[in-house]
Write a structure and sequence with these properties.
34% strand
Length: 154
């Protein structure tokens, strides 16, 4: 299983229920590269983001929620243990859902924005990445695209 998320300079991932930074074509391409044709798993708050395309095209969309979503092509599950979630899925958010899948994730893709976007939602990247080893990084303008792999000793 994999996870993908973006953070600002303070580990912020959201503000007022949506992404705080302006749309960025490089970040969009990175996200698309790692999710297109795959199953993406998200929490209800990520699904409810007003800027979020519903469903994400060319992907199997799974939403972990207690309230069913009646949209063709969207699978709702009430538990992260649901067998509908495949082992090769990509967890796309939010922070709590990523944390709950942490023991099943083997690769983390992180976009790091260099600015502070005054977020109100954060991911604890230090704790999250304690179980992972830095693998590679590509820099484009004010973004860093990082890949982290699960440590062999965990």
């Amino acid at each position: 299983m994999k996870a993908i998320f973006a953070v600002d300079s303070n580990g912020g991932i959201g503000k007022d229920g949506t992404l705080p930074w302006p749309k960025n074509k490089d970040d969009f391409a990175w996200f698309k590269q790692h999710t297109l044709g795959k199953t993406v798993v998200m929490g209800r708050k990520t699904w409810d983001d007003p800027a979020f395309p519903k469903p994400l095209p060319n992907r199997t969309n799974i939403v972990v929620t207690s309230k069913p979503i009646d949209i063709p092509g969207v699978i709702t599950v009430q538990s992260i243990e649901d067998p509908a979630i495949p082992a090769d899925a990509v967890v796309i958010g939010g922070a709590q859902l990523i944390q709950s899948f942490i023991n099943r994730i083997d690769t983390v893709y992180v976009t790091r924005f260099s600015s502070d976007y005054q977020c109100d939602t954060f991911i604890d990247t230090e704790t999250l990445l304690d179980n992972f080893t830095f693998n590679e990084c590509t820099i484009k303008a004010d973004l860093a695209f990082e890949t982290w792999l699960r440590c062999n000793n965990t």
